Amino acid sequence: MVSQRTAVFVVFAINGAGVGSWAPRVPALTEQVGAVPGSLGLALLGSSVGMILSASAAGRVIERFGARVVVAVSTIMVAIVMPLLGSAGSVPWLAVALFGFGMSVGMMDVAMNIAAVSVERRLGLPIMPSFHAGYSFGALAGSLAAGLAAGTHLSPTRHLLIAGIVMALVVLAVMRAVPNTAPHPTAERAPAPKVTPLRRPVLWLLAVVALCSAVAEGASADWSALLMVTRHAMSQGAAALAFSGFALAMALARLGGGWAQRRFGPTRTLASGSAVAAAGLLAAALVPSAAVAYVGFVLAGAGLAAAFPIALSLAGAAGKRADDSGGERELAFVTTIAYSGFLIGPPVIGAIAQLTTLSASFVVVGFIGALIAPAAIAAARSRDKEHSLV
Fold first, then answer.
1. CA atoms of 188 and 288, how far apart (whole Å)
2. Which of 146-160, 277-291, 331-345 has the highest mean pLDDT?
3. Is there a contact between 364 and 287 (Cβ–Cβ < 8 Å)?
4. What predicted TM-score, i.e. pTM, was given to this entire model?
5. Whole-angstrom distance, CA of residue 65 vs CA of residue 88
6. Which fold does the domain 1-184 belong to in CATH?
7. Contact 262, 306 (CB under 8 A)
8. Disulfide: which of 68, 154, 218, 376 matches 180 by Cβ 3.0-4.6 Å?
């Protein structure tokens, strides 16, 4: 019998594999739909918009049906949308497919994080970073499979159809072990907090932590290779290793994130990680050495590793009810704001690079990463203040 912890880890890995499967096929899809960079950029916004909209509604949906049902349904929706994404024949169709993909992945994302919070509460351990490590390793596996598919000239339609079927089958195989967060029909549920998420400063501050992490992670994913080419004169193949180092460091650091959180506490873990990430990003931007830049992106991946999962874990804890349920709306609120970082981050960084240099834009990203520390400290103080008023 699969344990709840293992089942949720698998769900995170499948979510990451879904994202990692389609992104490397963008060049093939661009050629397939005849897109130019401008129209492709607009189409790619469809995914971010879909994720934001679904995340904003996910809390109420999960409260009503439970995390297990929402994970199952959203995974099946991802499996259905992926081959439609691969078969897109025009830019508008690609945008629509990406919107549906973003909606499905966004709903699955919030539901799996709620399930992870449930496992944390049951075990009494801060293990959210280890679940997000599953996402990172899943994304890595999905991208490697996509590279193999591209190398063997497998069409995006067939590749994404196979990937979607595999994802659905794996998730359905472990679905019975995923925590069912919906209350039993005959059970009395503790009343929800009277203060909405919009009026709770601690949630806004946790959202800042997640938002800054999302912007820094998105910038590293989208612009690190170009920085290595333009700033350090690396070849495109060698430049791609910068993000590979970033992603691998993040995945490995997340495996130890739970230990760091137990040993030092969430606030110290967030603050120290913020300092490491900022130092790495600033070094990559300012030091005229390719070797230093590679090390900088590794440090950035390790430093940012715990920020997003800890912010979501604390958001779920902020909504905990007396009967050990709750947290759906609070986590969805923080996730929605964080997703906006993936939406606004890349174009803002690009605009700064256009007006100045790409190195200067990464200096800005470094300072954004540094903001995680004061936001985490302020969130801890706000949380203590809330508890003192209860």
1. 62
2. 277-291
3. no
4. 0.82
5. 32
6. Growth Hormone; Chain: A; (1.20.1250)
7. no
8. 68
DSSP state, 182?
S
One-letter amino acid identity for 271?
Answer: A
Q: Which two tokens stand for residue 6?
A: 């293992």
Residue 169, number of CB atoms within 10 A of its CB: 12
The end-to-end CA distance of the chain, in Å, is 41
Query: Which residues lie closer than 8 Å to 325 by C-beta, 6 or more apart?
Result: 181, 183, 189, 190
Domain with CATH 1.20.1250.20 in the chain: 1-184, 195-390
Long-range contacts of 354-361 (CB under 8 A, 24+ apart): 358/223, 358/226, 358/227, 358/230, 358/231, 359/227, 359/231, 359/285, 359/286, 360/285, 361/219, 361/223
Cβ atoms within 10 Å of 233's Cβ, excluding its own: 10
Q: What pLDDT was estimated at residue 319? A: 79
Q: Are 48 and 198 in contact (CB under 8 A)?
A: no
How much is the pLDDT for 140? 84
Please identify, in words, the CATH class of the domain defined by 195-390: mainly alpha
Which structure tokens are listed for 164?
A: 């979607």
User: Measuring CA to CA, how many Å separate 91 from each of 94, 103, 166, 186?
Assistant: 5, 18, 27, 50
Judge contact between 285 and 216, C-beta under 8 A.
no
Give the whole-angstrom CA distance, residue 317 versus residue 360. Answer: 38
What is the torsional sign of CA 362, 365, 369, 371? positive
Question: How many C-beta atoms lie closer than 10 Å to residue 84's C-beta?
Answer: 18
User: What are the backbone angles phi and psi of residue 259, rounded to the nearest 5°?
Assistant: -60, -45
In SS3 terms, 194-251 reads as CCCHHHCHHHHHHHHHHHHHHHHHHHHHHHHHHHHHHHHCCCHHHHHHHHHHHHHHHH
Q: Give the other-Cβ count within 10 Å of 284's Cβ.
A: 32
Query: Which tokens go with 260?
Result: 């760091």
Give the Å distances, CA to CA, from 13 to 10, 21, 75, 217, 240. Answer: 5, 12, 12, 18, 22
Give the pLDDT confidence of 146-199 residue by residue, as tens digits: 888 888 888 999 999 999 999 999 999 999 999 987 654 544 555 555 567 778
Q: Beta partners for 326?
A: 320
